[in-house]
Amino acid sequence: MTLRILLKIGNLWQIPLRATAVSIAGWLTLGQSPVGDEWILGGFEAKVISYIFLLSALYDFSLRKTILPAVLLGIAFAFHPAVGFILTAKKFLWK
To answer: What would the pLDDT profile of 26-55 be if each residue is shown by its tens digit?
Structure first.
């Protein structure tokens, strides 16, 4: 699910499929965590579900939607507050 969302985001942002695939492969090769020991794939914790909602919200924000991604961010917060904060902070602090 997570990889599919990453591919959809790459397509939406007009990144060539090969470049997206190579980037994802490199990210997986590095253990998904070049810094901070934070991973998305590799186990089942609340943050895994939270990242799915976070990436889905990022995709929908990119489509200029507002209500659905806001709900998805709320769900991401509910599953893992630290993960939900990432996109929320960027959305409101990075303009």
So the answer is: 888 887 765 566 777 777 788 888 888 989
Among the listed residues 89, 33, 84, 32, the one whose alpha carbon sits nearest the alpha carbon of residue 54: 84
- How many domains in the chain? 1
First to last CA, the chain: 29
Q: Cα–Cα distance between 34 and 51 in angstroms, integer?
A: 17
Q: How far is the C-alpha of 3 from the C-alpha of 55, rounded, in Å?
A: 10
Q: What is the pTM for the complete model shown?
A: 0.75
Give residue 89's domain range.
2-93
- Integer-rounded Cα radius of gyration of the chain: 13
